[in-house]
Amino acid sequence: MPSSDVSSDGSELAALLGDGGKGSPKVIPPPNFGMVDWGIYRSSYPTAENLPFLKKLRLRSIVYLCPEPYLNHEFVAENKIKLFQFGIEGKCEPAVEIPEGVIRDALRVVLDVENYPLLIHCNRGKHRTGVLVGCYRKVHKWSLASILDEYDRYAGAKARLRDKQFVEAFDASRMQRKGQIWKAISWWLRAFCDGQTLQELKSLDSREREIERAHGHNCRNSC
Amino acid sequence: MPSSDVSSDGSELAALLGDGGKGSPKVIPPPNFGMVDWGIYRSSYPTAENLPFLKKLRLRSIVYLCPEPYLNHEFVAENKIKLFQFGIEGKCEPAVEIPEGVIRDALRVVLDVENYPLLIHCNRGKHRTGVLVGCYRKVHKWSLASILDEYDRYAGAKARLRDKQFVEAFDASRMQRKGQIWKAISWWLRAFCDGQTLQELKSLDSREREIERAHGHNCRNSC
After folding, report:
1. Signal peptide location in the record (chains A, B) (predicted)?
2. Spatial CA neighbour of A122 closest among A52, A38, A42, A35
3. Fewest beta carbons within 10 Å, which of A75, B20, B138, B165?
């Protein structure tokens, strides 16, 4: 392919993860950042230098898995992000039991499309986050070996056997994703249409509602 | 949240990564599988047991980074997947230079929205795939430390300094994403509307074209 075909048509897409032309500042995702699935991200605890990156993800929700008060409350309020806090002790010594009911409640939030785009994080994005993502994979019937392969990738040398045992024992048979595809498309449009003025977004909103009125019923029935 | 609110409304979404109700077979992604970005996946070389999982991703393209003939050619043909092969030697001893021109050509394919959903893979999803994903992150202006953090997560103990040096030296200043948001939405609709009959898909196609006719021009201008 000749280099002349490098076009700028995709700038609305590129904006999502930080394209900004020459000379724009470096993008700094939180350590252990990754995409779990459509609309679901995971990471360690974001610090001030990560917030410009998170802003570009246009998050609708954060699932925070530590008991301590949240440090990024200003960022969350400014960006109208719903904060779901599930306080789970992270200490390994002495070992604290992973509270199954709390993980189950957090998983229900993660399975709800209307909370997307959503970021899951604890302190280091290894253990509590790894357990929740592992349970999410169980809902989607991943083989245990595949789930633990992913857990290990993020936990590295700090992998904990009790986390893996918890995921193995977790019964995901009554959990499933909920929400409507058109709601997801609505945030998807917003995520990719970065740099909109408020007025333009309002106009986009009304176009989305038109689309939903015209096509939502049929699509939901046929999918 | 009471458990009764666990609904089945989201089955079209859940289908993407393998929800299939009770008793459905285990889902087995390839080792080192991960989501790079919207519509971009990475993994090791998929084997026969991984193909049912890949089918659910409704891939439009595969970027294959080894010089050897492709083993999954039947799967690719059956599912009308475009195969982009970029033959890069993977051996470390004796060290083979990473061909910058080839990486650049592969990156152009990865940056083209019309190829999504797309899977990048080599043999183990560590080195050649890690280099290409690293260059992709450079296009999006990730800090080098963040890029190498991600490279290490997938390469583990097999991380190679020369791969990291290549990514550091790679000049991504003239590369950017290309394609149109409505094309991406079109495949996104398909990906989530799993289990359609051909007739239903045709009807969906025409609805998409209606949406594009009605709204595409305005959105492309305002995004």
Report:
1. none
2. A42
3. B165
